[in-house]
Amino acid sequence: MALVSLSEMLADAKKHGYAVGAFNTNNMEIVQAIVAAAEEMEAPVILQASQGAIKYAGLEYIVAMVKAAASQVSVPVAMHLDHGTSFEQVVGCIRSGFSSVMYDGSKHPFDINVANTQEVVRVAHAVGVTVEGELGKIGGTEDDIHVDEAAAMMTVPEEAVEFVRDSGVDALAIAIGTAHGPYKGEPCLDFDRLEKIGKMVEIPLVLHGASGVPDDAITRCIKLGISKINIDTDLRQSFTAAIRDVLAERPGEIDPRKYIGAGRERLKEVVKTKISLFGTAGKVR
Description:
It is built from eleven helices and eleven strands. By secondary structure, it is an alpha/beta fold. The protein has a single domain (6-278), classed as TIM Barrel, CATH 3.20.20.70. The strands form two sheets. An eight-stranded parallel barrel has the order 1-2-3-4-5-8-10-11, surrounded by ten helices. A three-stranded mixed sheet has the order 7-6-9, with no helix packed on it.
């Protein structure tokens, strides 16, 4: 199946009250695990590449792997740029075949974020690519982008309305208390803020930094309007743990297929669990 647009997936998710998982990928085994899990669960899925993933694997390799994987399954697959921070990078991903891009201008003042996002939307929409924007700052670290917890700023509902109206984005990532990377304790999410934004903004909302958020909090977020949920740290942890287990049991193992393959299988089970939690299983239409 060819790559599909993010807006197709998220419109259905918003209408029917579930969320689509957006899983970060860095190599072939992670790509294979994610699409295999989605196929088994009959669920639409988003594979996303961050700046770090593109730097590590190379843009051409990432695109080729995701397209190859999508062609082997019957479920809808979208390919998404996660946290693009420059117009040039976003355009490069669009030209390479991404079906969706995120422009993260949250580090800029509001007006500049709107203006930059507008320009990305103009170019992306001209070729049928959807755009996710971000308003508010999500704590933690995402590749080379770091936001101290004290500096993380929650999304202001009234600004969200203005941002969506003026920028033309198809989806909006909001800051309600989640963070990138492992949590030091249980995250404290501002559900009241999410509920208010969900009632005021018509487009699908996105939750970043969802690894480590308790299941009941995830379910509540979906009920309050979250339609796309980003998962990365949980995948890394499961993949690495499986490799460590194999090497601890067989320290003399030199065949990477044996331990990386174990990582792939463990990661696939995590993705299946997330798909079930998000309510996406069986949602292929």
